[in-house]
Amino acid sequence: MKKVHVLGPGCPKCQQVAANVAEAAKAAGVEVEVEKVSKPMDIAKYGVMFTPGLAVEGEVVCAGRIPGVEEIKGWLGAERAEGKK
Amino acid sequence: MSDSQKCACEPSEVLFFPCSGGSNCGQIAHYAAVSLARAGRGKFFCLAGMGGHVKGLLESAKAAKVLVAIDGCPALCAKKTLEHAELPPQIHLVVTELGIEKKSGNLDFSEDELASCRGTLERELDAEVALIPGRG
């Protein structure tokens, strides 16, 4: 189970990131637990200044843009291949 | 998202990274960035976060189109920090190259010196931002 955090106040861009994560996880066959982080102070703990942001297993993988499904699959798959975190 | 909550979904196109060093020139770099940020020309960003390789800050910086490194002196700490983070700046200014003598440990500077630094940055910004697609 991968822990994924979607960082942002909850606007349509954040929702799109969450939707892309769900699609990527399904396509990659990876089980994910998605949590939305919407409070500014909580987002700040990740160092993210521009949203939407995305963190996989606690590590920020992108900020200030909507990552594509293939890109997200890579982040989920790469971690799985490394067999860590 | 509540109406009162400001969305951070519009990344700034321009980020300022002054060295903010311990001299008159370092402070000129710092306050030139403050002045330009307050004027809406970009966002004052966290150089220390680049040096610390804070992933969230690095990824946020990647979303910008123009990174501005403002160094007080030829040590080039701001530029080198960005390059170490694999984020080379599009604009780089060295305050001492404006003819301002560095005085280590002295944090005082004149309004004219600050205006000189700010003016130079504004001209370079105007030229660089014009190159951004859709902004020229």
Beta-strand percentage range of chain A: 15-25%
Helix content of chain A: 40-55%
Distance between the termini of chain A: 10 Å
Overall structural class of chain A, as computed from helix and strand content, comes to alpha+beta
Mean pLDDT of chain B: 92
- Strand order, biggest sheet of chain A? 2-1-3-4
What characterizes the major β-sheet of chain A? Answer: 4 strands, mixed
Distance between the termini of chain B: 34 Å
- Mean pLDDT over the full residue set of chain A: 90
Output the CATH class name of chain A. Answer: Alpha Beta
Q: Tell how many strands the DSSP assignment of chain A holds.
A: 4
Oligomer: heterodimer
Radius of gyration of chain A: 12 Å
Number of helical regions of chain B: 5
Using the alpha-carbon principal axes, give the shape of chain B.
globular
Task: Kindly state the number of beta strands of chain B.
Answer: 4
Q: Secondary-structure element sequence of chain A?
A: EHEHEEH
Could you describe the 3D structure shown?
The complex is a heterodimer of chains A (85) and B (136). Chain A has helices at residues 12-28, 40-44, 69-82, and strands at residues 2-7, 32-37, 53-56, 59-63. By secondary structure, chain A is of the alpha+beta class. Chain A has one domain: 3-Layer(aba) Sandwich (Glutaredoxin). Chain A has a 4-stranded mixed beta sheet with strand order 2-1-3-4. Chain A is globular. In chain A, 41% of the residues are buried. Residues 79-85 of chain A have low confidence and may be disordered. Chain B has one domain. Chain B contains 5 helices and 4 strands. In chain B, strand 3, helix 4 (77-84) and strand 4 (91-94) form a beta-alpha-beta unit. In chain B, helix 1 (24-38) crosses helix 5 (111-129). The model of chain B has no long low-confidence stretch (mean pLDDT 92). Classes of the chains: A alpha+beta (85), B alpha/beta (136). Chain A binds chain B through residues 8-11, 13-14, 38, 40, 43, 46-53, 55, 59-65, and chain B through 1, 5-12, 43, 45-46, 49, 54-57, 59-60, 62-64.
